[in-house]
What we know:
The complex is a heterodimer of chains A (323) and B (541).
Chain A: H1 2-28, H2 36-39, H3 46-56, H4 62-74, H5 88-123, H6 128-142, H7 145-159, H8 179-201, H9 203-217, H10 220-227, H11 232-241, H12 246-261, H13 264-269, H14 275-284, H15 288-316
Chain B: H1 2-14, E1 28-33, H2 48-57, E2 62-64, E3 76-78, E4 81-88, E5 91-96, H3 110-121, E6 135-141, E7 145-150, H4 157-164, H5 170-173, H6 185-188, E8 196-202, E9 206-211, E10 224-229, H7 233-241, E11 247-248, H8 256-260, E12 265-270, E13 274-280, H9 297-305, H10 309-317, H11 333-336, H12 347-356, E14 369-370, E15 373-374, E16 376-382, H13 386-401, E17 405-411, H14 413-422, E18 427-433, H15 442-445, H16 447-451, H17 464-475, H18 480-493, E19 496-500, E20 504-509, E21 512-513, E22 530-531
Parallel strand pairs in B: 1-10, 16-17, 16-18
Antiparallel strand pairs in B: 2-3, 4-5, 5-7, 6-7, 8-9, 9-10, 11-20, 12-20, 13-18, 13-19, 14-15, 21-22
Helix pairs in contact in B: 9-12, 10-13, 17-18
Amino acid sequence: xxxxxLRRSADALFTTLLAAVALIALVHLLPGDPLxxxxxxxxxxxxxxxxxxxxxxxxxxxxxxxxxxLAQLARGDxxxxxxxxxxxATLIAERIGPTLLLGALTLLVTFTIGLxxxxxxxxxxxxxxxxxxxxxxxxxxxxxxxxxxxxxxWLLAVQSGWLPPAGFADPLLEVDAGFxxxxxxxxxxxxxxxxxxxxxxxxxxxxxxxxxxxxTVDQPWVRAARARGVSGAxxxxxxxxxxxxxxxxxxxxxxxxMLVAGAVFVEALFGWPGLGSLIASSTSSRDLxxxxxxxxxxxxxxxxxxxxxxxxxxxxNPAQRGA
Amino acid sequence: xxxxxxxxxxxxxSALGRAPLAGQVPGxxxxxxxxxxxxxLPALSDQTFNTDLADQLFLRLAILxxxxxxxxxxAMTPMLARRWQRVDPLTLVFELDPRARWQDGTxxxxxxxxxxxxxxxDPMVGKGRIMMEPVASVEGLGTGKVRxxxxxxxxxxxxxxxxxxxxxxxxxxxxxxxxxxxRSDFATGPIGNGPYRYVRRVPxxxxxLRADPTFFLGxxxxxxxxxxxxxxxxxxxxxxxxxxTDVMGDVPAPDVPKIRDVPSLALVNISHNLVLWxxxxxxxxxxxxxxxxxxxxxxxEALRLALDRRTMATSVFGPGTGAPDAAQSxxxxxxxxxxxxxxxxxxxxxxxxxxxxxxxxADGDGIVExxxxxxxxxxxxxxxxxxxxxxxxxxxxxxxxxxxxxxxxRIERLDFTERMAAGRFDLTIDxxxxxxxxxxxxxxxxxxxxxxxxxxxxxxxxxxxxDRLLATAETAADPxxxxxxxxxxxxxxxxxxxxxxxxxxxxVHRRYANVQIWPAKSWLSLWQxxxxxxxxxxxxx
Lengths: 323, 541
């Protein structure tokens, strides 16, 4: 197992490096003037342009620029944002918390609900309720997340006033507010973006789990268990769910990077101060260091996700352990 | 008339709350801004979300008067400078208000003004390098006076320096290299001289300001200002509708009915500096040769006459939107007299002009041709702009009725910027927020800017007559007639077809009194707003 883990980690590292080089090269080949991120629409004179280009290195040939960026990254330096002139690492650090919070809770809630509904549907495939669940989750999946979000905001925030329509926290909450007040405030602000994300994505694990469990319910060991009188939760969890878990593990691994980048629309609609909105704004303003820094984070997360998925796959699938 | 309207609107807003103020509540105002104001230092950033915050922290030497007139030595209202004196046509002396203090207690002095000017002119910082180009020197005369010398005489010297100069504290920043100021501790916790103190910024969420009770022009009557960050316009509207914010500028036209339905909100129109136009490239797309079609004035005028611009503008931006013949926003009403409706649609005249230029529909397919080549043009605009897309679709249909086929090319913003800079387009929907002064027309429409590949004049428009008229206006004692003549020349030469000069629709909670909202710099008077105690909200107490 240790040998496999080392080999797999080395593979992940190599792939990460390749992806990083490709990312940096692609970003440097993007059209547009990188100084736009600094100067916006205002005119500048030739001397100022020359000084800015020399300082920020935006006039270097692509190969030289790619090399310089790689060297800088090798020193562990993500660089300085052209638009805000602040360290990219600081910008990412400021934004990653809300993104991970929303993403982790989305993962947790979506998979908890999706796997439960999927398993239940597989065990009761012909019931009206199972068909209804399948249809409703598919509708949620078919609707763009921002449409779901806008509907929820209109109903639950603007019309009823039950929940705040946007933001991560109430700026008017006193700085010395108690723990319970802060917790309640955070939960209230989290509710709508989380609900939107869950409704938009729950169909995926639900249908995956349903398909995997349907393929399992007729297996000999399940029939044998039934013949032995096993039923209910024990049959569902021990004999059907566990063997049907393998494709779900792969799905979890693939979802990890989506936790960071997949919520761009939801973050925008709900004014959620996460990494998704940072990536969107830096891409549109051609703030190359931020695009590269946040892109690298995604590359690393994809690799970690893939590694975790492989690891879990081996844990839930004993046949793989010796491989 | 428009000039009177703008003023009238300001007063209307002021009259929102005229009830007697029995007692006083501290008051809070919350408004949403589209981006995180990470650089609220006026010499370093000119993005609106930064400058709106900076205007609460750092005073200008003077602000525009109620007419928004920028020419002359009586046009401005004192702020940090309590008076100024004209020494000669090239020299102004400003006298700083001796009561002015930085929020750490240090007096504001001439040294601060000189330091800030040097910072603005630094190529590595240089927000104001082009803007302040006419300034030859800035020097302190003791601690309380500043002498400003200009390179040439022009009517807007006072406006140029006093409105654009927001001093930074030299005693806190002199030891920092200009390029490092943006990354300094000062940038994340600025100490100003204005009505509000910077309290805290929660990244990506909000910035909180508190009134400075020692502010030398009088303690602010609104105790707390909170700027919530909401990049999405829909999110900003939702925050307002849900009562989480109190004010919203630039209300999108589709959201106006929803806001009208909220009894606690007033919706008012303020002069806006936004203007959108169809620019017509004077070069062949991507080359330095003259454009084979658009260098003909008759074709440009025909393209303008084919459009029902009044209908287009109103459909996208709502009633009150202008569509003048020259590139002028509502803000320049002191020059234009409010004449913001240009030539009406006349398709027959457009067809006649095209025919005069040799473009006729010989094969009866509805598209005019010349020497067998149909009149086809490509229009580019950024995909991120909904209003531009709506205007483009309407324009395409109207041009077709005049026999012109226009292909719409909705492209990503960076690609748009790249193609504009490289001149790879025939037509473009361009524009944006205009400078307060009409003299800024030189940046986009002068021959000098046409010769500068890095300028905003991406159309490469050059008309020496227009340049001459503009130069005359800049030096005239009363420049109104000359500016009108310059704008008239632009209207007749048709370098661009103005599609919309909209009003700024601002939503304000009705509990505020003494509300003044300024065109272009909306929140300059925020510190003088107050909350009527009888309708105060819990967050006001």
